[in-house]
Write a structure and sequence with these properties.
Layout (H helix, E strand, L loop, with lengths): L1 H9 L2 H6 L62 H15 L4 H8 L10 E3 L13 E4 L17 H7 L2 H17 L4 E2 L23 H17 L5 E5 L11 E4 L2 H8 L1 H8 L4 E4 L3 E2 L2 E2 L4 H11 L5 E4 L9 H4 L19 H9 L5 H17 L33 H10 L2 E5 L11 E5 L40 H12 L2 E5 L5 H8 L4 E8 L24 H11 L3 E7 L14 E6 L7 H9 L34 E4 L8 H6 L17 E10 L8 H8 L14 H4 L1 E11 L5 E3 L2 E5 L10 E5 L2 E3 L4 E9 L5 E3 L4 E3 L6 E5 L5 E6 L3
Parallel strand pairs: 2-3, 4-6, 5-7, 5-16, 6-9, 11-12, 11-13, 13-14, 14-15
Antiparallel strand pairs: 1-2, 7-8, 10-15, 17-18, 18-23, 19-22, 20-21, 20-26, 24-25, 26-27
Helix pairs in contact: 3-13, 4-12, 4-13, 6-7, 7-9, 14-18, 15-18, 16-17
Bound molecules: beta-D-glucopyranose.
Beta-D-glucopyranose (BGC) binds next to loops.
InterPro entries: Cellulose_deg_GH3, Fn3-like, GH, Glyco_hydro_3_C, Glyco_hydro_3_C_sf, Glyco_hydro_3_N, Glyco_hydro_3_N_sf, Ig-like_fold
Pfam families: Fn3-like (PF14310), Glyco_hydro_3 (PF00933), Glyco_hydro_3_C (PF01915)
Keywords: Carbohydrate metabolism, Cellulose degradation, Glycoprotein, Glycosidase, Hydrolase, Polysaccharide degradation, Signal
């Protein structure tokens, strides 16, 4: 029963939002919105960008099933153009045989008589000229509403690994699981930028820096699509808070949009992503799903995106949205259960009366079916959908196909690799010779209702390993710290006890007194706005630990001088009340690592994995230090105006520019060992591309190049230009991984933040070992978006860079050759 109810609730985002402010505080700045006039619109198709002929090893012509191999410093720029061209041709041939109604049906979701959260009905007969339709399923971390699936680490943990191989492998395994369940389209990854630390869905995404998020998106999509599922990059764009997500207009300048918010979607397009989901909000007064600027101009034209744009669920606002670039409406109805659609019959009528051209409809249907061909889903071996998202217990429709394989192994590994060591006094960690330990806090143990006791994970009891909402899936099991630590402690004959009552401070004090080690667990949860957990309607109400976490930690620390804090949090917390407490000997920032949460923690605690996770966002000293806050208030019918006044200065970029000292900076994370950096050099990469020499010399001279189809993803802009190389030595006594990060400092003329992440890599080193690392820079990395010229230009002046261990821990300094 849970699933039907949960599925229906999840499809009602707008209703929940309307109840937020019963007392209706004074409206903040309001906005009006633009709707596209209903009058005939001509259509010119946007062709596949023309790139140089494939150059093996540099610009290889790639197909999703065979992407370039993962590398800690990717130098290869895959060109999916030829694969798209073939897929588009096949799709066009198929669409040519469809009737007007059939073409429209390809663009219009059908709901709720089907098995997936989004469905496109077949065109019959399937065996002949027809087509089997599509099953679209959440989420970005696993198959939602299904059984025998893996609960992978969330996006935020994946980003915290800063490890491309793990990003890729997680994507691959997810792709395989979706395909095994007969899903055509996985609704992920999610790349909103965590502009507000309290944003409810930040954990679904990859943190507060566009470069890191872009690389995570790129690797995730290459992996997913290698696994055979179509990726769906979401939510495009500026969907940065849950409050009033359907009624907020984001005022974003063109440069900020290009350099920050659109960048991860650009990287998704470069990974060959099949689809993009337009979001609920408005951008500069126009809804995202009818926004010609963001859909037609930036995504399809500048990025050269060849696939299709689907609406978020009920985010379509007009039939005319089709002329702005929307290709598919989901779940189909204007709003849930209305039984009428902006596409469907309306689209048919608009095409019949010439308001929307048949060419545009052909383009819509062709793009959609091309995604299916691109991923080889026309193969007779592609499994039929074998579960029912709306009724998981129905024996007639759920075959309980086990797609988990041994994916728990990568879940455990990513869980460990994404755990960030923030404090470690006198080598409190890794644990050695501990004779007695006590675990404190409900977050150490299982939830009394079981791992899936709350619909869409909308509750917080027991260990937190996932946020809530459509970004969740079902846990097959959930290994809590309580179980995992006991199993490990047994090997050393360590005495283990626990006290899981969060608010019984006298009991806590008694339980931790006299123990050699106390590990206290706290968490903080958030999710999608249609579920309210303890007054948190999606977004977090504050940045403090839940269940009285601060008081709990202070009580433990007051009574035990070897207190280790473990947090399971969807994002940053303000930790000032306790972080400097002298009895707190270590802090582990574990995020929400999925089903193996306890095992991953054991690997870190006992040193089976030397911590290598790095913060994908800044931990501030005060919530008010962050450059952006949630915009609340207003009446249900209001369109809130959210002004992106911080522009390019999100997360660490703001702290650096305003000289605000964070508690822990972006990119920070300690290790059990130590690393030294040396021997920096930078050299130019030979140019193999003789096709784009004029564009390259314009760029070199600081001149803009013409805006054109695919001009932002053009290979000349992304081909390696410089290789920065340096050496890293493990100077400590543990085998471990280091994550060197490269930050560029643009000249003052560029008006950029002081430091901007443009590269990272990862190394694993034995004690005493030295390895040479490389980080490649391309022209795009060294460019800024020129709003007047509408192009990527090299700023005037000297560009310098730092290679180091975080955004504030520079070790080596260099200059880009003039
Ligand atoms: C969410 C999307 C999700 C869709 C389908 C929407 O409410 O914003 O992320 O994919 O529902 O469940």
């Amino acid at each position: 029963m849970l699933s039907v109810f949960a599925a229906l609730i999840s499809l009602l985002p707008a209703l929940a939002v309307a109840q937020v402010n019963a007392s209706y505080p004074a409206p903040p700045t309001l906005s009006t919105y633009y709707t596209i006039p209903v009058s005939p619109v001509a259509f010119t198709p946007i062709p596949t960008p023309s790139d140089p002929p494939p150059i093996p090893g540099i610009f290889p012509s790639a197909v999703p099933s065979n992407p370039p191999p993962v590398s800690p410093d990717p130098q290869v720029v895959p060109d999916f153009g030829p694969a798209w061209e073939i897929a588009l041709q096949k799709a066009a041939a198929k669409v040519a045989n469809f009737t007007l109604e059939e073409k429209v049906n390809v663009t219009t979701g059908v709901y709720p008589t089907t098995r997936c959260v989004g469905n496109i009905a077949p065109v019959y007969p399937i065996d002949g000229r027809g087509w089997p339709g599509l099953c679209l399923m959440d989420s970005p971390l696993g198959v939602r509403y299904a059984d025998f699936v893996t609960a992978f680490p969330a996006g935020i943990n994946t980003a915290a690994t800063w490890n491309r191989a793990m990003m890729r492998l997680r994507g691959l395994y997810m792709g395989q699981e979706f395909v095994g369940k007969g899903v055509n389209v996985q609704l992920g990854p999610m790349m909103n930028m965590g502009k507000n630390a309290q944003g409810g869905r930040n954990w679904e995404g990859f943190g507060g820096d566009p470069f890191l998020a872009g690389e995570a998106a790129y690797e995730t999509i290459l992996g997913m699509q290698q696994g055979g599922v179509q990726g769906c990059a979401k939510h495009y764009i500026n969907n940065e808070q849950e409050f009033d997500r359907t009624q907020e207009s984001n005022t974003v300048d063109d440069r900020t949009e290009h350099e920050i918010y659109a960048h991860p979607f650009m990287r998704s397009v470069m990974a060959g992503v099949a689809s993009v989901m337009c979001s609920y909000d408005l951008i500069n007064g126009t809804y995202a799903c009818e926004n010609d600027k963001t859909l037609n101009q930036i995504l399809k034209m500048e990025f050269g995106f060849q696939g299709y744009v689907m609406s978020d669920w009920a985010a379509t606002h007009s039939t005319m949205g089709a002329t702005a670039g929307l290709d598919m409406t989901q779940p189909g109805d204007t709003n849930f259960g209305t039984n009428s659609s902006y596409f469907g019959g309306s689209l048919t009528a608009f095409v019949e009366n010439g308001t929307i051209s048949m060419d545009r409809l052909n383009d819509m249907a062709t793009r959609i079916i091309a995604g299916w061909y691109l991923l080889g889903q026309d193969s007779p071996t592609f499994p039929p959908t074998n579960f029912n998202a709306f009724n998981i217990t129905d024996p007639a429709t759920n075959s309980h196909v086990d797609v988990m394989d041994d994916h728990y192994t990568i879940v455990r590994e990513i869980g460990a690799a994404s755990t960030i060591l923030l404090k470690n006094v006198e080598n409190a960690l890794p644990l050695q010779g501990i004779r007695s330990l006590v675990m404190v806090g409900s977050d150490a143990g299982p939830d009394l209702r079981g791992p899936n006791g709350y619909a869409d994970r909308g509750g917080d009891d027991g260990v937190l390993a996932m946020g809530w909402g459509s970004g969740s899936d079902n846990f097959p099991w959930l290994i809590s710290p309580l179980e995992a630590i006991q199993a490990r402690a047994r090997l050393d004959h360590t005495l283990v006890s626990w006290f899981l009552e969060d608010f019984d401070y006298a009991g806590v004090a008694a339980a931790v007194t006299g123990q050699q080690l106390a590990i206290v667990f706290v968490n903080s949860d958030s999710g999608e706005g249609y579920i309210d957990v303890d007054g948190n309607e999606g977004d977090r109400r504050n940045l403090t630990a839940w269940h009285g976490g601060d008081e709990l930690i202070l009580t433990v620390a007051a009574n035990n001088n070897n207190t280790i804090v473990v947090t399971h949090s969807v994002g940053p917390l303000i930790i000032e009340p306790w972080i400097d407490h002298p009895n707190i000997t270590a802090v582990l920032w574990a995020g929400i690592p999925g089903q193996e949460v306890g095992n991953s923690l054991v690997d870190i605690l006992y040193g089976a994995w030397t911590p290598s996770g790095r913060l994908p966002y800044t931990i501030a000293r005060n919530a008010s230090d962050y450059p952006s806050q949630l915009v609340l208030g207003g009446y249900p019918q209001d369109i809130l105006s959210i002004n992106y006044t911080q522009g390019l200065f999100i997360d660490y970029r703001w702290f650096d520019a305003m000289d605000i000292t964070p508690r822990y900076e972006f990119g920070f994370g300690m290790s059990y060992t130590t690393f030294e950096y040396s021997n920096l050099s930078i050299s130019a990469v030979p140019n193999y591309d003789s096709y784009d020499t004029e564009l390259m010399s314009n760029w070199e001279a600081g001149l803009p190049n013409p805006l054109g189809i695919g001009s932002t993803t053009a290979l000349w802009l992304h081909t390696p230009l410089y290789v920065v190389s340096f050496q890293v030595t493990n100077t400590g006594s543990y085998y471990g991984g280091e994550i060197p990060q490269l930050y560029v400092h643009f000249p003052a003329s560029a008006a950029e933040p002081p430091s901007v992440l443009k590269g990272f890599t990862n190394l694993n080193l034995a004690p005493g070992e030295t390895q040479t690392a490389t980080i490649t820079l391309n022209r795009y990395d060294l460019s800024i978006w020129d709003v007047v010229a509408q192009g990527w230009v090299k700023p005037n002046g000297t560009i310098t860079f730092t290679v180091g261990a975080s955004s504030r821990d520079g070790r080596l300094y260099g200059t880009i050759p003039a």
